[in-house]
Design brief:
Blueprint lengths: L1 E3 L10 H11 L7 E6 L5 H4 L2 H11 L5 E5 L5 H4 L5 E5 L10 H12 L6 E7 L12 H13 L4 E5 L14 H20 L1 E2 L4 E2 L5 E7 L2 E8 L5 E6 L9 E3 L6 E4 L2 E6 L3 E7 L1
Length: 275
């Protein structure tokens, strides 16, 4: 788990308790990382406490990473030196484009302090009883793809506790398991695979990335727009394959020579696997 150390919004005020918690649980197998603060870039009163606390906590546990969640576009340069995991949140619904997710991830990947730093994205999955900010299945999947395409190495889902709200009884809940299963299939190609360059697309609003892993090319594609489109991908002559399929074995496409043509629905995402 992502273990929070910022009870009641405190950072330095929790230092003694945080050190005790780390000493007690740092060898527990469920600890993935420690989280120092949530959105310190929006909290000037406690934000300045993070650097000193980060340095102290790092001495208490040299194995597990420490992280903060950042919410503003230009925050990464100021905070990258005081976090191991750069966790991003951007909740575009309702009212703004899904591509706020890809834009923020791209900015963070550009501004992080070191190549080893992990970009982690927190995807909106709703927390209001009227469902006004819960994405559809297609929107949720596209946000995941937008983050992964731009370099995120892990995905978190954000909801919250409220007596009038229960994520497990919402329309999105039955589909989260299938989206997470897809993320798992893509995880090793994205984290361990080689970047494949030279692929082009004739629609600049369609985002994509390609990784080569264990003899296969994984081409992640998402159309975050509200309109359907037909797109053509051109592969470099040096990229050779014998067969192709989509990760769900449902989407249709055609391949002729080094060109792939496929139709994308409005807010549609898929992965092509070339082998």
């Amino acid at each position: 788990m992502d273990v929070p150390l910022y009870g009641n919004g405190k950072v330095k005020g929790n230092l003694a308790a945080s050190l005790q918690k780390i000493e007690r649980f740092k060898n527990h197998p469920a600890v993935l990382n420690w989280k120092i603060s949530d959105e310190p870039d929006l909290q000037p009163k406690i934000g300045g406490e993070v650097p000193e606390v980060y340095a102290t906590l790092k001495k208490a546990d040299t194995i597990h990473p420490f992280g903060v969640t950042l919410a503003t576009d230009n925050a990464v340069p100021d905070w990258a030196a005081f976090t191991d995991i750069i966790q991003l949140d951007r909740y575009p619904l309702p009212g703004t484009a899904l591509t706020r997710v890809s834009d923020f991830t791209r900015i963070a990947a550009r501004d992080k302090a070191a190549d080893w730093q992990n970009i982690s994205f927190v995807v909106q999955c709703g927390w209001k009883p009227n469902l006004s900010n819960q994405p559809t299945v297609q929107q949720a999947r596209s946000m995941v793809y937008l983050a992964l395409i731009e370099g995120a190495k892990s995905i978190w889902w954000y909801s919250m506790y409220d007596p009038k709200w229960d994520l497990t009884k919402s329309p999105l809940w039955p589909h989260l398991k299938e989206i997470n299963a897809e993320i798992k299939v893509l995880s090793q190609p994205l984290m361990l695979g080689e970047n494949v360059s030279g692929i082009t697309c004739d629609n600049t609003k369609v985002l994509f990335t390609a990784r080569k892993y264990e003899g296969r090319i994984y081409l992640l594609i998402t159309n975050p727009e509200d309109t359907s489109t037909q797109v053509k991908f051109r592969l470099p002559e040096t990229l050779h394959y014998q067969n192709a399929r989509t990760i769900d074995d449902k989407s249709t496409f055609t391949i002729q020579n080094q060109a792939i043509t496929l139709s994308l629905k409005a807010i549609d995402s898929l992965t092509l696997i070339l082998q």
